[in-house]
Amino acid sequence: MTQEEELHPDDVQQHLREVQDLLARQKAVENLVSQQDVPRHEMVESLVHKQQQAELAAKLEELHSADIGYILEALPLEERLYVWNLIKAERDGEVLLEVSDAVRESLIESMAPAELKAAAESLDADELADLAPDLPPEVIQDVFQSLDPEGREQLRAAMSYPEDSVGALMVFDMVTVREDVSLEVVLRYLRRFEELPDHTDKLFVVDREDHLKGILTLECLLINDPEKEVAEVMRSETVISFTPEDEADEAAQAFERYDLVSAPVIDSEKRVIGRLTVADVVDYIREESEAEILSNAGLREGEDIFASVWDSVKNRWAWLAVNLVTAFVASRVIGLFEGSIEKLVALAALMPIVAGIGGNSGNQTTTMIVRAIAMGQVEPSAMKRLLKKELGVALFNGIAWGGLLGVLAWWLYGSVSLGLVMTGAMALNLLLAACAGVIIPMLRERLGADPAIGGSVMITALTDSGGFFIFLGLATLFLL
Amino acid sequence: MTQEEELHPDDVQQHLREVQDLLARQKAVENLVSQQDVPRHEMVESLVHKQQQAELAAKLEELHSADIGYILEALPLEERLYVWNLIKAERDGEVLLEVSDAVRESLIESMAPAELKAAAESLDADELADLAPDLPPEVIQDVFQSLDPEGREQLRAAMSYPEDSVGALMVFDMVTVREDVSLEVVLRYLRRFEELPDHTDKLFVVDREDHLKGILTLECLLINDPEKEVAEVMRSETVISFTPEDEADEAAQAFERYDLVSAPVIDSEKRVIGRLTVADVVDYIREESEAEILSNAGLREGEDIFASVWDSVKNRWAWLAVNLVTAFVASRVIGLFEGSIEKLVALAALMPIVAGIGGNSGNQTTTMIVRAIAMGQVEPSAMKRLLKKELGVALFNGIAWGGLLGVLAWWLYGSVSLGLVMTGAMALNLLLAACAGVIIPMLRERLGADPAIGGSVMITALTDSGGFFIFLGLATLFLL
């Protein structure tokens, strides 16, 4: 690669196309040979094939492991495994870290225990901890045995923290310095490194027992006179640090708020035990918002787009089952009023409007509340105020949209009282939606559940059944 | 602050509580005084008041501007403006950058043009460009006049790029060095700086005309022998750079994929014109996923949780209007079959199940497809394969869940043929949902629209009307 060929963001798609081309050419040759069905072609084929394989392997070798991960994600299973086998064994570990859970599963399934062990051994303790849940227990056991005592301790620590904690995200490699040396000494010390840990934007200043005394940013190190002592230029006040027990979500917000690149992780005695970097935080933010979007649509996890029908069915069935139950309940509510519908069939045509708008409005409310809770902005005192506001919005919408629908119902069916029932039912159902939209996420938060997940099913269930009940009930009372 | 008081991620909530306490105490004194209604208290009140105000101002002064932004977001309008007025004028600009659009609007409304001008003048060109859309035109004009020619050029450039481009995110401050100097010279050069630009993890190596020749990471600068020349140790191959026209989304993916902290932005002649940093990318990622979650729930933008009812109504009406139209269409579809419902009222109770499950299933499909498109993994060739898979899932679910519902309908209403119609309608509507779930986002992508936005309304509209039509149509054909 010459300097002219700089890596542009769309290059990874270029890489993907090149790999796909190579695979297609390979397939074309294979097809040609199999059509001819002549044994003497075997040698030719195998030569061409080997050449193409070598070309593909060379192409893969020059790619960043993240790009290889991307390509593996985009290939159907058969081609994915073919490419996977062409990747050098020593890169297996880092590539496994780059792919999604679903694709990782498909790759790990294709590997022998010995290969897996070799791949795992090429990783740091924190990376290994990320991979461990997907590895067979005997492989983990083997890898664990092969670690040095410090590595074992780190792996044990990293695996012991819950998934959404700082401990699960932290890395162990870092550079620490003492406060009583000059910057010149630090500069000379750094020159002894082959490389610095990723995302080193600051060095941690510690004492003999690893207690955090302050931080020395590389900036500070570079702009100050090398004669100065570390203690003179380090920052010891308002150092942002985390404990492994802190929630990853709060750490992510702190990284965003204070534009951090890395931060020390300390134990209860202020000893530095690890480091949190922006790369892990960015991955976490992306994964969290993915999870929220997926769960809003009722998907348990991301799917390999080339997964089998059966894998997809398993990923999606739980949500459909819940919806089936709530839809069935709503259906039984309608069943209660079959007599009324028989007398006035217009009710059947109008009732889904009341239920549907209620659900949409409730989801708008709950999304706002969940956002506000996630930002930590909803104190109990704010709840009353929010409820009042949401009820205000619902009342306005109920009268405005309900009124419009009332007029439409009157026009369609020539009955003023049907129109009035429609308006009243809309207003009441929107008020119900507003209450549910505020209270459900707040309650879930107070009960320690993630307010973002599953709220929309509950609200829709309530506004469906509630909407049918309110509309058909009012109609039965006033129209029949 | 002593070293003991380290900043922890939950500290910002602590700050918020302290500010709220101070505000509450102030209010308590005011209430007490106003109850007494005696003029001689006026002086006392004003003394106490002034003291409290000073305490609050001092508290605010020691906070990071991001934390002040957070506190402003969490306060109701009246208290928010009170706190805002206590913030030193020279910090106004940076705080305005930290708050959400909705809150920024409320703050800017409260400021006089001269104050706004002062606040704006304290910002860099790229920050100013972010703020500009919210400022009154005459203020922008004034600020523009006060800039030096380079600043004007930068501001003009920053404002000329579309919102979701790299140009809109880039910053202009950076450190560049020449390739023919020694690292020792670079180190001495850096010592002349008071501070380095935020997120400087690499220096850009340029020639006399600012053409990018390579990058020199701070790591490289620190670990290498200072006698070496920049050209010896800089990286000139596979340098990841962007152009201002690149899409921000692609840049964000590249930052994630390659774990970047900063990257050069170059023009068409490879001259370095700016820099993209991870802080801006993280903000962008968060804003994008927020926007997706909000728009999924039919909200145009984030709401200030203390906004007026009227502001909320304006933010939400468009989505409700669209839903009203689609619900009305579905209602007219039912209207077509009123005769059938009159004869067999069980249809009215069962039809929402068919429509509802179809909508949920379609949303699952479309969410998967939108994810895959966002990852750039869906090539035209993959479309056929995906459609086949989704139809497979739909057929399976249709038979399984449809069969279950058919049995339930049979059990409830004692009619085998009603059960069979139910099963058939479920299967057909799920197949419709699967087709729509694949095709709608793909078409939107091809037409240049954001596939993530608004897809769910269209699918729900289709599966509602389609579900009613299929179920009532089959019932009319086979049962009556």
UniProtKB/TrEMBL annotation, chains A, B:
It holds the Pfam family CBS. Keywords: CBS domain, Cell membrane, Magnesium, Membrane, Metal-binding, Transmembrane, Transmembrane helix, Transport. It comes from the Bacteria. GO terms for cellular component: plasma membrane. PROSITE patterns: CBS. CDD domains: CBS_pair_Mg_transporter. It is a multi-pass membrane protein. Homodimer. Acts as a magnesium transporter. This is Magnesium transporter MgtE. It comes from Thauera terpenica 58Eu.
